[in-house]
Amino acid sequence: MDHFQLQNGVLHAENVALPDIAEAVGTPVYIYSRATLQRHARVFRDALSACSDAHLAFAVKANPNLAVLKVLASEGYGADVVSGGEMVRALKAGMRAEDIVFSGVGKTGDEMARALDAKIGQFNIESEEEGAELAAIAAAKGCIAQAALRVNPDVDAGTHGKISTGKAENKFGVPIREAAAIYARLATMEGLNMRGVAMHIGSQLGSLDPLEAAFVRLGALIADIRGNGQSVTHADLGGGLGVPYRPGESPPSPADYGGMVGRITKDWDVRLMFEPGRVIAGNAGVLLTKVIRVKPGAVNPFIIVDAAMNDLARPALYEAYHDFAAVQPDGARFTANIVGPVCETGDTFAMGRETDVMQAGDLAIFRTAGAYGATMASTYNSRDLVPEVLVDGDRYAVVADRIMAGTVMDAERVPEWLLDKDMDGGDA
Ligand code: LLP
Q1: Most CB atoms within 10 A, among 145, 217, 249, 321?
Q2: pLDDT tens column, 328-371
Q3: Which pLDDT score, from 0 to 100, does residue 52 have?
Q4: Is the Cβ–Cβ distance between 265 and 298 less than 8 Å?
Q5: What's the gap in Å between 200 CA and the centre of ligand 1?
Q6: Is the pLDDT of residue 428 over 50?
Q7: Is the pLDDT of residue 321 over 80?
Q8: What Rg value do the Cα atoms of the chain yield, rounded?
């Protein structure tokens, strides 16, 4: 459930009418609902109540906006980060260093050093080589890195290939068959405290079966590692739970997920850790856009909106479906193609979609845009970087400014040796 509903025929975010935000902030703009974020954070936590003391780390990549992170920090969430930049955000938003997990397949030595200095809670190591480097950096600093070994269970998550991470051919983790031996070698290294195992098999999972299969393998690995005489006190089960994008779609609920996790892990005797992203933020945000014009097409008309693939990349990257709706629908429907202004055919949000009738100047939203939306935006085609707004009841705040194309251009320089008399460049 979310808080983007019609009130008197006008779509609202909580109690704020979307046309008011469009008027004040302009379009396109991402709009998040604090109540929805809080609700999702609580539903996910409650779903895991059978797992005592579960550690919840929001996957910052899903929505790194400081205000969003602050809401989740207030709900007791830590952070799953994959870069030095994400770590700084989590700390700035008030997440406790010990509640931060550093994941990611290409942590640099510099990032690991900075994370050690910040005293983050856990590194999820992706290879023996990375573990050895982390151990050396920590030992040189005279500290000990708390670490879990990320394993690749070779399970097909059944999701889009580009967001599937748990198959043998994917770049993530160490092969599960080699994991116990690698763990044993890492456990001997000065500077490293191997305390657990981790996995994340993919995102937007529509079935619990692959997760269950992967967790069963992880349970067996924990037994193997213990059998070798090493200790395992933590198991990080990653994120991945899908959310409904289409009306009527019903992926497994957090409660179903929690039930399965409780059943599979009941004898593990570890502290369970989770890294949810999309399930917390996805349906807590929409992208508000304005129709530039409607243009006739060979089969269906094109609704050209002022949001584009640079603002919401998911349809272009993953053929993702985002529900599209008028902010003030009058009940009439038609079939149209929904496209942005960027100069490539990939800048298409939907083809042949039945939707509300729209004309130039109308406002519309793409739903389920709170995760992997603004965070993946770019300035392609020299467009502005899309701003973000957080709504709370009947108030709202701009939580990320629109960064104008001119500001981006101001960071560029034409070297002196390219200047000619007609061009005003250099370090002006
Ligand atoms: N933990 C790790 C190690 C991850 O790599 C991810 C996501 C998560 C947790 C959070 O997964 P979630 O609960 O959100 O499914 N840009 C893509 C999604 C990429 C996900 C990458 N990893 C999209 O727009 O669908």
Answers
A1: 145
A2: 999 999 999 999 999 999 999 999 999 999 999 999 999 999 99
A3: 84
A4: no
A5: 8
A6: no
A7: yes
A8: 23
Tokens of residue 7, six digits? 């009130």
Angle between helices 254-265 and 34-47 (to 10 degrees): 30
* Residue 279 alpha carbon, nearest atom of ligand 1: 13
- Tell me which residue has its CA closest to atom 22 in ligand 1: 203
Q: In whole angstroms, what is the distance from residue 91 CA to residue 267 CA? A: 34
Q: Is 343 a catalytic residue?
A: yes
Confidence at residue 422, expressed as pLDDT on a 0 to 100 scale: 67
Task: Find out whether 87 and 65 touch, Cβ atoms under 8 Å.
Answer: no
Peptide bond into 28 cis (omega under 30): yes
Counting from 1 in the atom list of ligand 1, the atom nearest the Cα of 165 is 5
Q: How far is the CA of 275 from the centre of ligand 1 (A)?
A: 9
Q: How does pLDDT run across 167-201, given as a tens digit for each residue?
A: 888 899 999 999 999 999 999 999 999 999 999 99
Examine the pLDDT at 26 and tell me if it is beyond 50: yes
Ligand 1 probe mutation, 275, 280, 314, most atoms within 8 A of CB? 275
Peptide bond into 276 cis (omega under 30): no
CA of 367 to the centre of ligand 1 (A): 18
> Which atom of ligand 1 is the closest one to the Cα of 372?
24
* Predicted confidence band of residue 165 (pLDDT cuts 50, 70, 90): confident
Q: Atom 16, ligand 1: which residue's CA is nearest?
A: 372
DSSP per residue, 306-346: S--TTT--HHHHH-----EEESS--S-EEEEEEE-SSSSTT
Could you say which of 1, 299, 332, 343 is catalytic?
Answer: 343
Helical axes 66-74 vs 34-47, angle rounded to 10°: 40
Ligand 1, closest atom to CA 203?
Answer: 15
Mean residue pLDDT across the chain: 96
What residues does ligand 1 touch, defined as CB less than 6 Å away?
Answer: 59, 61-62, 80, 103, 163, 200, 203-204, 238-241, 275-279, 314, 318, 372
Q: Distance of alpha carbon 365 from its chain centroid, rounded?
A: 20
Cross-strand bridge partners of residue 148: 124, 196
- Measure 374 CA to ligand 1 centroid, in angstroms: 14
Report how far residue 428's alpha carbon sits from residue 421's, in angstroms, rounded to the nearest whole number: 15
